[in-house]
Structures are given as structure tokens and as C-alpha cells.
Amino acid sequence: MANDTVNLTEMSDVSAILRLFEEHHVAPTFDPVPYLSRLAELLETETENYLKMDPDPFDDRNPSRNPNCSFGHMLKIIFKKEIFMQKLVGDYLRDTYWTRLGISTRDSRELNTAAARLVLDLMPGLEVSVVFQDTEGLINRLFSWAEKGPEPLQSYATGLLAAAMELQDLAANFRELNAHLAPLMLKRLWEIQKRCAEEKKNDELGKIKRFSKFSSDQPSTSSKTPKNTASSKSRASSSSKVPKDEDAELMPGPEPADGASDKGKLPKNNKAKKFQGRIKGSKERKSGNASLNGSAMNDSSNSSWAEMESYVIGTYQMHPLTDSTRQILILRYLTPMGEYQELLVHMFEQKALDLILNYIDFDETQDSRLSFEALKYLGALLCHKKFAIEFIHHQGLHRLLEIPRPSIAATGVAMCLYYIAYCEDAMERVCLLPDHVIQELVRYALWLLECSHESGRCHATMFFGTSFQFRIILEQFDAQDGLRRLYNMISTLSILSMEDASDLLDDDESHAARQTVRHVCAALKRYFEIHLAGKVEHLQRIRVREMGGSPHPSTPPYKAIKLNADQIIDLITTAQELLPFRASWSPVNEFVSLGGIPLLLQVIAISYLWNFTGRAETVRSALDVLAVCSVSFRVQMLFCDRIQIPDDANAVGINILLGAAEGDIVADPEVQRAALCVLIHCVCAPVHRVGGSVGRFNGSAKRRSVASRTSEEVLNQVWECVRSHNGIMVLMDLLSVKTPITDADSIRALACKALLGLARSENARQIMGKLPLFTSGQLQVLMREPVLQDKRQEHVKFQKFGLELLEQVSGRIKSNVNEFELSLAKIHKADVVAQTRIQFNEKQLLQLIHQHLLSKNMVESASILMKEAGLPPLPLKQASSNFPPYRATGNTPSTPSRTGRVNSQGAVALPSTPVAVPSTSTPTQQMGIIKVNLSSRRLRPGMPSPGPQPGVNSQHRALQKVTNWDSPTTMNKSLGAANVSTGETSRGVSLDAIVTEYLMNQHALCKTPMVTCPQFDLFQPHKCPDAKSKNTAPANFALRVQKRAIHPRFGGLDGARMDRKLVYSRFRPVRTFRNDSETFTCCAFSPCEQFLMIGNQTGELKLYNVNTAVEEATYQCHENYLFNIEPNWTGDLLLTSGMYRPPYSCLWAVGDFFDMKYSFEEEEYVEFSKTVQDKIVGTKGETATVYDVATGKKLLSLTPTTSNNYSKNRATFHPSDELILSDGVLWDAVSGTQIHKFDKLNQSLSGTFHPNGLEIISSSEVWDIRTYHLLRTVPTLDQCQVTFSASGDVIYAVHLEEESREEPMYDSSFKTLDAGDYSSIATIDVKRCIYGLCSNKYDTQIAVVENSREFNTPSESIVRLYDVGRLRDDEDVGSEVEEEEGDDDGGASENSDDDLEMLDELVNGGGDEDGIDVDIDSSDSSDDGQFGDSDDDDDDDDDDSNSYFGSSDEFDEELFSLNADSNSSGSSST
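User: That's the sequence. What structure does it adopt?
Assistant: C-alpha cells below.
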């Protein structure tokens, strides 16, 4: 074994040592101590080298993460040996190891010491939770060794306990043992310090090497001792810096008098002189460090670094164990204990504060690592407010500022400063210190912002972010150019670089950089918010003085300024009102000059690619900074400028803000609210600000253009920028947001407020006024109730902004505040009514039915009902009512009564009930209340209340309707007078009265009510027909044809429209084209109308004969999915577009041969020009390219400056070929100039030109080309592909939903609309998904590509040919059945458009077509009146439309059926 020991001493390869261990450890007499000791020596050597690299002392990650670290490489090798690690942790740390092996003569302490030493050396790379898992016996042994074990086992056990107690679960399980051990450890530290002080006094000065570079009084010599570092070094100039009696105060024990309290009793002047002396000495040491660095670099002297090493990185020696290392291990154990409140009493009893103050006295310890561990312990204790206050009271801050820099101890100071700033009471006492102390504190913290350790920079940043709320710190920060240093922390980061430098960073570096951005943004947020509070307070004091008042006292500089989110919003609003438009606000101006605004916008945009937990907080803080800075008009103009981000070179600041508000950057409601607040401050700013109406000219031309802007011009620029970057669409989408449910109401309120500010722009207001949100009452629906009932306060804000927005868009200005409050009250009232659950007594309802049966002389039925329901008999006298009928007073002017006429239309006369219609006078013609009153007779003043009359049944009462046109005030007075004169009046309640009042309320809602009405239908809502001109064409087709002789050409006004609605609501399927092997995708008629060209998913183009349905030819155009076919007018050229593989589009020459003429490799979609088909426009993303048909050369390339990014953009020519529309941008087709960008109000469709050349249809929006205004919105066309008929007067619309997963979802119906007024004609359901639709040039036939709902099922893929304007009869059904069965005889159907055949079909009708449903729009069904109905009256013909569709017989389900809604309302009049 001795030979093995010698061999191990000479071995330096860890792998070889472990290999020997694996070979010999199974022997019964194997001694592992030499192996463990040799491995510990090698690890300690590498640990020393690793610490010389000056790693971040707070970085507890595995050193093996650094590929160039040999220490980490060694740890990896050891951890891979599982047998060795199990033996080390599980066996060698047992105090009964040799006893268990049967060797009782050996003591296990030596083995335990070696094992504990090695485990402690391995701790930087060990997973602590795994090492101490299910090892309760080990923890108990460690506690025992740490308390009573011999050295060095005692210290090693303390170090292992320190690592174990970092786990909160373990610390909680051993709370009692920790409470017992912590005071012992503090006493042990005092003992070590006392012994070191005695040794230092007894040592001769000649045996101690002086660090002359750190002393300014006398030269020193150097000598090393194996003892404690603190005891082996002393300062020669201590007597010259502090009084001599201070030596006794530096190292006090627990028993003597409190030296620290004596210091606290020193006069302030002595304290200041003493602190100045310490600062001076610290500066001298710093200069000494610089000279040492210079000598080390110039002379390459090892002694220079040896002298400076303990001051910069400290010493750490595990074997032989020094006093310095013992103290370090004890402090590591006490650090996690310092956070527990129950142990705080022991800290005060053992004077832990004095102990720490001694350790951080660098002139005494001269060991940076020992001071750093003491500072970590101090940071844990500073979490307690009482201790933090005591620390400040004992001049602890002065000691912190004396620690030299650079050093790892200075990094510990950064953490302590952050914990001090976190305690508000302690920070208030700091702010009361002399100015030079505050100045030195800020200077020290600013230096930490630029130190080498990442943790020090982060702690310093968090210190400023927390302490900015104290104005004295903020002023010193500005005085020392702190904003620039804070800005430089993120401006120099690689992750924000526009180059690819960020790709070279590893995960750890990227994460550290992102954390830096997070802390800096939080500090900037607090910095600008406190500046804002001070600025607004200053402006308000000026305003109060100008008004002759006395301002409120300001917050003292040493008191914290606390602001919540609502207060900050109010401060920003106040600043925009009071701050002069061109006033110079130094914090914002300096930040703008540094480039901070674009940098923060870059942070927001780039954070989309980040993935770490603080991303939402980072973006929110950056947005809050921008919100405060938006008070300045320069910042608002910067929002409208381009921002350089990696993915988009044309991004604008407003675009980034809108993306954040929409949730595209970070899906966090707090971020969305912050972004909306920034937008609100921009678009809701005052139009006329103080000093913003007159321009100022100075400087260069570029600066003059900015300085000369007025506040109104800047605001208009912001409005246009928000609108042009689709702000209206984004904000309107946010109005209907429902998730997350807890934040939806607040997001709605903020979005509505932003729209309210944007609505002050005339262009934006014009667009909003045409949107369904306002025209269809969608906003009122959203305002009815909140998303979450608990958020009613937020919903009230939404209602308030919504009402103001409605008034702004409609142009109506509220007359007074009461009207607005009344409207808000009505909303709340309607909300309450809507939520009310109506309950009533069912027996009372049965009693009314019983009474009604008696009134109809159905006595037997009434008695059966009474018997079965158990109804009590009705009293002869009805209960009196508190509301008698209105009685006109004598001084009220009267008008002729309308009671008789109204009663004739609204009352249902009872067969046996006499109707009394007295002549009543109606007061002033004001809008009042319509009510139904039942009374046997009118009461006169002075007449008694009527009782039961002999011979008159109480049920036989007169039904009388009284129409009251009084105002509410007049009515109340009249009612009061009636009550006084007549008392209570009997009032009967009957089922007739309830039904009559119900029908009367319906009739009151009619736009043009009629006096004479037919019988009301209780099962259908009532509506009087609308008024129409005498020259209006009849709704009935036969009458319309008859009137053509009088009113050519269409029989009167709207005759052409009615004809179109009649024709384009009927489609007869006449031919089916099949292919069992492929799926059809698109189709087009040939110019000669003899062939139908059909594309499929394999890229083939098939030609079918229209008359015979025979496949004539097949051409392979693309390799995959052909989705567009367009022939030219002459038929000699053909454009095709495919997907997935280039070339995406091709131009083919059609003649004797089918040849490719040109290929467009990158163009995703192509089409011909309209007037002269000599050009082709192609689409690739947002770029449109124009090609010459003859040569194939590129003529123009059109890329918008600001892209709308429509997902289905298709560039198209204007009917005159003078304009091109691409990606929502209008271009000049000749010069390639961008003319106008239309607002984006949908995500998919860019738009197409109307054949009239005056309008653009983009999804549901219709734009005017002449004024660029939004003309209207057509909800029927929402997300629909639009195809015009050849004549251009009818629109075929096929709905294509948003893409989901990999394949798009298609609708199973197409719609027809009148292209003149965009009214809906019909919706035709074909029961299959529609992939494409085309019309021939005569508008007599259409072809529809119909596929099954399951993709890639060729057997269900067909192209159906329809005749337009024709219905099918029984013979057509039979022929269609044959086609469905595959028995195609090749015969063509008759496609005659003869009027006689049309009339014959209208008269005779046809059988229902299986497989097709036609839903005619209810508002337009009046165009299709019954042919045989010749009366020209205003009555509703409810069943007129039934004769259009013939009988209701059904045939095969796979065929088509034609059904119509026979219950369309208002079918007799248009």
C-alpha cells in the first residue's frame, strides 16, 4: 500500500487514479484515504487556477459549462464514475466504515476527513439536492462533526452543512439543530478573530511583509506564514488614519463593551473626518492597485500579483486549513441562516453586526474573499428591516464604500446596496447622510455598473431601480452622467446588434444579456416615472402661483415617491396639458439624443425571439418608459420613423407598438395594456398644446422641419401613421377580445379609448363610420354586459368611452352632461332588465285563460279548466288599480281623437262585448307612452267608483285604448289630479288586454305604420310594408313584364334589379364532369364556350367538351396543385398558377400544340391585364411584378414601402389597365408610382376592382378610388373570394376561411349579390366544398368545382355545370339521376333563354332538386312574387315565393333539391 501511495503522489491524471481505484477498491484491506487525498490535492490546484480567472462569485453554475475550464473538465471525469461517487458519499462519510468491514482497530475520522474534504472540493459541480437526498443520517453526522468534531473535520463538515442548508426543505427539517448551531458558529468566529488579533500584536513587524503599494506612510516587507491570512497581514499606517483607541474597537469579543455603539456616539464632525480619511485611504489603495497592475505588466513580477491577489480575488486554501478558510466556511453556513426571522435574536445577542463590520474593514482583513463571504452574510441579514436600520446607524454604509475596487468584495457590495435600497426605512436614513456620502454612494454604484462581474452590474442596476424613488439619489445620478452609463449597459449588448454577433453567444451569455436588458428597462421605468412626478409637480406649482393660490408642499428629498399605474397615466395626461409644446425636458431630451427610443423599440421587437421568464416584464418596462417619454413631441415623431430590426427593414415604431398591443410580441395582458397606454398617450394628446400653435425656425433645414411643426401637425402625423399601419383593424379586434377573461374588460376599455382619440382624425372617422361596429350596432352589443361580472368597474369605463366614440363617429355632440349621464344610466338599466328573470304565478295565468273562455261562452271548457287546475272562483269586483286612466283637464288644449281609428286596427273586438269609444281629448303632441286601459265607462269628476251593475256581467267590459301623448311630468300631474278627485279606479285585467298591448307594441315599432291593417299573426312578428313610389316596378314578375309597355325597359324603377334577383337566384344543374382518379381544384371556360378547362391537384389541365362532357385532352402544366387558370380573350394564350414547387406560374401558347411560352419561377399568382391583354401582373408575397406578354420581360416591380401582409394577396389590373392593386396599395401601372395605401381591415384578401372602375372590394370593405374613402361594408362578403359576372352586375362570392393546420377549409355554398347596391340575392348550398367557380362570357352558365369535405378523396370530386336563371323539372331530375349513376349518354341539355320557357317554368314550377338549397334573402324575396297574383295592393303575400319552386317532392339525396324559405318577412314590398 506504501508503493501505491508513492505512485499516487506522483500521478496527476485523474482518470488514471480513478482507474486504479476501480481495480483495488474491492480488496478487504483497501485504504481509500490516499486516493481521496490525491484527488483533493489535484482539485484544489485546479480550483486555485479557476479562481485566478476571476469568475463571477455569484455564479453557482457548474464550471464544466465553460469548455476551456480544466477544473470543470476534471469534475466531469469524476462525476462519470458512479461507483466512486456512491462510495464517496454513501460509505466514506460514515463514522462506522471500518467497523462495518470488521476492522475495529482503525479509526474512521481520517477517512471521514479526507472524504469530507473531497466532497467539499467537488461541491461547485455537485447537485446538492441529489447528494443530500434520503441521507438524514449524513446530515445528523455533519451537525455532530460541525459542533464537536476535531479540526479540520469540523470545518469541512461546516462547509458541507452550508451547502445543504441552501435547500429550504432541508433547512426547515433541521430548524432546531440550526437554532442550536448558529450561535455556536458566531461564538467561534469571535474566538478566531480574537486569537488573530492577539497573534497580530505579538508578531514582530519585521516578519510581516508590507504591502507598500497599499500604504502611503512607510515601506513594508513581505513574509508568508501558513496561518490565517488575516493574522499574517497588518497595516502600518492604521495609526495615522484613525485614532489609536480604535484598535480596540476593530476586533471586539462578545463579552467586552460594545465598541460599535461607542462609534455611534462620536460627534458628527469626527464621523465625517473619519469617513473622509477612510475614503482617502481607499483612493490611495486604488491608486496603489493601479501601480501594482502596471508593475505586474511591465516587470512580470510574481511578487506583485502575490501582494495584490488577496485584495482582488482573495485566498482560499483547504489544506492545510487556514483560519481564513475556517471563517469562510462558517460564514457560508451562517448566510442561509440569516434569512430566518427566528434566528435573528441570536444574531443580535452574538453581535453579528460588529463581527461583520470587522470583516468588511479591508484595512484589517486584507482578504477579499473573506470580506466577500462576510458581505454575503450581511446581505442575508439586511433582509430584516431592523438589522438594516442598525447597520446604517453604525456607519455600515461608510465601511461598504471603503472596500477597494476592483475586487470580488466590491461585487458583494453591489448586492448589499440593493438590499439596503429595498428597505425603505433604511434608505430614508441613508438619504439623511451628508451630501458627500450620497455622492460617494452613487459614484460607487455607477462604477459597479461597469464592473467585470455580471452579478455586480445587475445588483447595481437593481439598486438604482429601487432607489430612484428618492429624489436625492436621482439628482446625484443625473449629476454624475448616470443615464448615459445606464444606457450603455444595453446599447453595447450583442443580442441587440443588427449583425449576426448574437449567434456566436452561448445560452448562458444570451441569458445573462437578456437579464441585463430586463433590469435596465426596469430601472429606466422608475427613473422616468419619478422625473415625471417631479416635472408635473413643478408645473402645477407654477400654475397655482399664476392663479394666485398657494401650492401644496412638495415631497421631501429623503422620502420615497410611490406611484401606481393610474397615477402615472394621470401624470402623463397632466404633463401633456401643462408642459409647453417645445419645452426642454432634460431627461427625455438626453435619452433621445443617446438613441434610447429606437433602442427600446428594438428591444420590444426582438424580444419576440427570446425565450425566458422575464420577457413580459422586460417588454412592459420598455413600454412604460416610452409612455412617459411620449409627452415630448419629438418622441411621438420618432414613433413614426423606421426602426432597424433584423426581420423587417421597413418596420415603424407605431407598427411595433400595435404588434405589442395585439399580443403578437408577448401574449401577456399586462404588455397589451402597456402598449395600448402608449398609443393612447400619442393619439389622445391635446390638439392645441401650450406654445404649439406657432412654428419656430432655427438651425439647419432638417432641424427646421422638425422645430417648425405645430402640435396639430404632429398629432395628424401620428394619426395617419397609426391608421396607415392598420391601427383601426387592430384596435377594433381588441374591442371584441374575450380572453384572458380576467383582463378582457380592461383591454376593451383601453382599445376603445384609443379609437376615441383616433376618431378625431377626419380620415379615420370616415372609415369608422362605415364599419359594422357602428352601422350594425355591434358596439352597443359589446357595451351591454362585461366579459367578467367582477370587472364591472372596467366595463363602466368601456361604456363611457364607447358612448363618446359613438358621438364622435356620428358627429353628434352631446348637449349637456345630464344627457350623457342619462344615456349611461339607460345602459345600466337595460343591463339590469336583461338579467332579470321573469317569474309569475301560473295559476293567475290559468285564471286569465278561464276568464277568456267564459268571455267566449265556452262555459264547459272553463269549468273543466277550473276543476283540473283547482282554481279559486274569481271575485265579481276586480282589484282596484292605483293608476286610473288619463283624464284631460279643462285648461288643456284638445285635438281630434284618434282613438277610434287606432282601436279599429289594434283592438280585438269581443263577440258579446259592447265597445265603448268615447270622445276623448288628447293633450299636447309630445312623445309619450302608449298604454291599454280597460274600463266600463269614462269617469267624470265627482262620480263615484263604479260598482257591479245589475244585469251587466263583470267580464263584459268595454275594451278601450287610450293613447297618452303627454310628457312624463304632465302625466304625473294629471294622474295626481285624477286621484284626488276620484280616488281609486277599478281596472280589469284580461288576456285580451295583454295580447292587445303586445301587438300594439309591435305595431309601434313599424317605420311607416298603417291605420288599416290585416289581422295580426300571433306566431309571426308584425311589420307594416314600407312606402314606395308609384313608378316603382311591381314585385310580381308578370306585372313587371306587363308594365314594360308603360315604363320601358324594365317595367319601372328597380325593375332591372328585381330581374337580376329573379334570375340569379335560380340555378339548374345540367352537367357533371367527373374523374375518379384525381381531385379537381379550379376551372375556366374557353373563349369559344365549347370547352371547360379543369385543373387538378397533380398539376394537370383537362379539357372537357361542354356539350358532351367528354374529356378531349390532358396537359401536364405543373408538378403539383393547379389552383388558377386564365385564358386570354382570343384563346391562344393561357396562364396557369400552381403551388409548392417552381415554376409557380407559366404562360402557355394554345394552338395546334400546347407549349410553354414563359415560366415565372417565383410568381405565386398571375393574371392578364383587362382592357388590352398585352401585360401580365404576377404576385409574390407583397411584391407585384408586371411582365410584357410578347417578350416576357419584366416591366415593373412594385414593392410597397409599408406592407399590409395580406395572407392571400393577388395583384390585379384596373379595368382601364391604368392602375394596379397589390397588397392593399394602389399603383400607377405606367410609372410604377405608389398612389395610396388603403387601410387594412382584414387579414386575408387584398381586394379586387369593381367592373365599374370606381370601387375596390376587399373582403367586406368597399373603397372609393376617387376619394379613398370607405363607402360601405358588406358583411355578406366577409372573407369571400369574389367573381363578377361577364356583365359586371352580379357578384358570385365563395367563402374561404382562414387556413388551419396544413389545409384550408372551404365553404359548401356560394352567394350571389347585386353588384350595384351589394344587396344579397341568394345563397346556394351545394352540400360539398367549393374549390372554384367561373362564369361564361354570356352569363348563361356557371361551373362550380365541388369536392367532398375530406381532402384527397377523388371519388367525390366533380365539376358541376349550372344554367343560370332556370329551375329544373321532373325530366331534368331523371336525367340527372342517370348522370349520377354514370350513365352519361352524351346528350346536351337545352340551354334556351327564351322568355316563354322562363314564364312556363314560373307558372308550372319544378320538383325540388336534391343536393342544392337556395336561400333567398328575406329582404329581397319580394322580387319573386307569385305569377298568378294580379292584385296590386300593399298586402303581405306570405306564400308568394312558394310557387317559384314547384312541389315539395324529393328525389335521390345525392342530387340537388331547391328549397326556399316561405316565411320571408316583407315579401310583398321592396
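The chain has a mean pLDDT of 77.
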